[in-house]
Design brief:
Helix content is 18%, strand content 38%. With 352 residues, it is of the alpha+beta class. The chain folds into 2 domains: 19-153 and 331-337, Diaminopimelate Epimerase, Chain A, domain 1 (Roll), CATH 3.10.310; 160-327, Roll (Diaminopimelate Epimerase, Chain A, domain 1). The protein has an 18-stranded mixed sheet that branches. A hairpin with a 2-residue loop joins strand 16 and strand 17 (318-327). The radius of gyration is 20 Å and the shape is globular.
């Protein structure tokens, strides 16, 4: 086996002959929706299903996300049966390293697909989609015109500022002050300037810096409730990634730029829906945005999400907000994937 490649996987004996997917993207970030081939997933709750696929079915993730069918920045969705009242469908999110608890760009795309594919009854004007994500029920609204679904927006699960002004020692950068926000997943969030960078520094430099921050924060800021964790489930208590921003957090009509590095150095092409949610929670906690003010969040591809705070609440004694995040998912194609006998690399690999 060449250096940098993982050893061959042991595939289940009942491995399917083929997988079918719908290919989409939101703001440039891929969304691979698995429609045929994925086995039934046992579990009474969606989080139990997530734990099961992590332990028993991870070969499917690698097969569909990694090369030669995917790449280091591929993103995927596994539709499953919901278990929450008000949910039309449920999804598990997967990527280069594992399984997320929330994904805004995928939520926007999946809701459009759900309307177009008849998973929910289509209504001209706005069609509601109740989408159960591992973090909870997300209410999605899909614009429908002349029978065709288009742009969408979702109202988030309760989001909150988990920690403000945390000082983390980052190798190569020294002490760095950051915030930790929750928007369905936890992120370390800070202006790139605190690392001696701008948003024009280039993706490689920003990725290296964000990854260093994430590793340092994971080691130095344990997500243990009631300080910086989630009151609902320990399954949600992990730092998903780092978001570097242009520092323009005070409300403005001008877009604010950010880049999100998550999972195993994966670079989000979109503004990151759960990250926008977390940024809004932090901005609201600092009094930088009030309910009803709409902001634009811009990604490295130049794509925008809209974001606003539409409600406030309290979650486990912590002030929380409901964020509304909007964007447009687009179709890119349909695929059929197979594994040919004797293909030593066909189970999936990464070049490290």
């Amino acid at each position: 086996m060449p250096p940098g490649l993982p050893s061959a996987l042991t595939l289940p004996v009942d491995w399917p002959q083929r997988f079918e997917t719908v290919e989409m993207h939101t703001g440039g970030e891929p969304v691979r929706i698995v429609t045929t081939g994925y086995p039934d997933i046992p579990g009474d709750t969606l989080l139990a299903k997530r734990r099961y696929v992590q332990t028993h079915l991870d070969a499917y993730r690698r097969f569909l996300m990694l090369e030669p069918r995917g790449h280091a920045d591929m993103y995927g969705v596994i539709p499953v049966r919901p278990d929450l009242p008000g949910a039309d469908l449920a999804v598990l999110f997967m990527h280069n390293e594992g399984y997320s608890t929330m994904c805004g760009h995928a939520t926007l795309a999946v809701a459009r697909w759900a309307v177009d594919s008849g998973q929910v009854q289509k209504q001209d004007g706005v069609t509601r989609v109740g989408l159960q994500c591992p973090c909870g029920l997300v209410e999605v609204s899909v614009a429908v015109k002349n029978g065709r679904a288009g742009a969408a927006w979702f109202d988030s699960v309760p989001a909150f500022a988990a920690a403000l002004d945390v000082v983390v020692t980052v190798p190569g950068y020294g002490p760095v002050t950051l915030d930790i926000g929750y928007g369905g997943a936890f992120y370390a969030i800070l202006p790139a300037q605190r690392l001696g960078l701008t948003m024009d520094a280039g993706v490689a430099a920003l990725t290296d810096a964000a990854w260093a921050v994430a590793e340092a924060a994971r080691a130095q800021v344990p997500l243990s409730y009631p300080d910086t964790s989630h009151p609902d489930s320990g399954d949600l208590a992990f730092l998903y990634g780092t978001i570097l921003t242009d520092g323009a957090d005070l409300w403005s009509e001008q877009p604010t730029r950010n880049i999100c590095i998550f999972a195993e150095r994966q670079v989000d092409r979109s503004p990151t829906g759960s990250g926008v949610t977390a940024r809004l929670a932090l901005q609201h906690a600092r009094g930088q945005i009030t309910a009803g003010q709409v902001r634009h969040f811009r990604s490295i591809t130049g794509s925008d999400f809209t974001g606003s705070v539409v409600a406030t609440s309290v979650l486990g004694g912590v002030p929380a907000v409901t964020a509304r995040v909007g964007g447009q998912g687009h179709y890119a194609g349909r695929c059929e994937f197979v594994l040919e006998a004797g293909d030593a690399l066909g189970a999936g690999f990464r070049v490290l």
